[in-house]
Amino acid sequence: TLLKAHQTCKKAARNTRKAAGGRMGPTPTVHAVRKRMHEATKHRLTAAATSTGNGRNGSERSAPWLSIVAVMGFSVLNRVTYKMALVPLANHIFFLAQFMTVSYVFIYSTTLYVRYKRGYVTQEMLDVPKKTLVLAGMFEAVGLTLGLLGASGLPGAVLPVFSQLILIWQLILSYTLLGRRYPFSQLLGIAMVAVGVATTTNLGSSTATLTVPACARYLCIYILSLGCPAMSILLKEKVFSDYRRKMGRDLDIFVVNTFGSFSQGVSVLLFLPVISRLQGVMLKDIPSYMIEGLFCFFGQGNRHGLDSTGAPLFPLLYIAMNLCFNVSVLRLVRLTSSVLSSMVMATTVPLTILAFMFHLPLLPKPQPVGPFFWPGVWILLAGLAVYNLHDASLAGIRSLRKISGTRSSPHGPPGLEQ
Description:
Elements: H1 2-19, H2 30-52, H3 55-62, H4 65-85, H5 93-117, H6 123-126, H7 131-151, H8 159-162, H9 166-177, H10 184-200, H11 213-247, H12 253-270, H13 272-278, H14 286-297, H15 313-335, H16 338-355, H17 373-408
Helix pairs in contact: 1-2, 4-15, 4-16, 5-12, 7-11, 7-12, 9-11, 9-16, 10-16, 10-17, 15-16, 16-17
């Protein structure tokens, strides 16, 4: 390569002498050629780093499949361990929710402090506007309250299906607030995912009781509650995109998690009388209820005449899986969008059904899947593929344009051919 570059420079020097009327000029030495090659390489690397911002973040945004697999895996483990954790804490679900909220605020804050001391989190990251994150936490608390109220009057079999209506909320909110437009292929993919989930869970056998006016009222409340987490995740996506556009790199996930969880915890305390009443716990009985739940959580429920089999292993395992699930989902939101993240979580519904077909500790004997399960799975996967087909085609077009642009315009300085 060095010899070829040296010959190229000699040829350029001869052309220069001819154009100058035959005056002799110095022939570039090997040292000069090596110096030019070093400058050209440095120039190309600088241009590539400037165009992609951060090299690690650029590769992550171009290949989010690892994050998608992580979300799907942790989502299934999160639901399975949740069922196991409810065995010793069946009568203390409200305690488990409050314990997790306090634990997450502590874990996220500690992790953020450690990452700040090690230099992964900068001061400009901590100076991100907090108003949007506070609103996101408040929406999550309101969604929790309305969701508990709506789910209390609905059959449990229909909840996984109607939970997919969060996709509709995210489409509406992203269209009105972010001005985002979705092509027909992506809308078709979202519809196919919703139909696939309804087919795998055999929705038709569970909707007979929804015609009762009381159930219809609870259904409206539950659908309304889905708009709150949709709004929360959209606000977090906006925080990530605004910071990336302003600073040229990605915002650390634990900054968003810490402030969002703290806001959610404060909001849950404000709604505590309403949430406790929905869970069947009177406000005056909360202290004794929390003490009983704490004993059951650590496997000491026999002191109060309660069965705490499986504690504290499975409750702690559920908290760990839920923590990993929340971090992986937020990372996927940072890399892609809130709509795609919700579609990925929708695909975990049939995977969770398959997981419960195995013999798991503390859980009853598994039941076989229905006749429409596998057709629903294929419809769901086809919808996910149709949705990503548009992004894949755009990525291919951008790659072709980049290749053609590279061939037509060399990155090196004048006087050195690429």
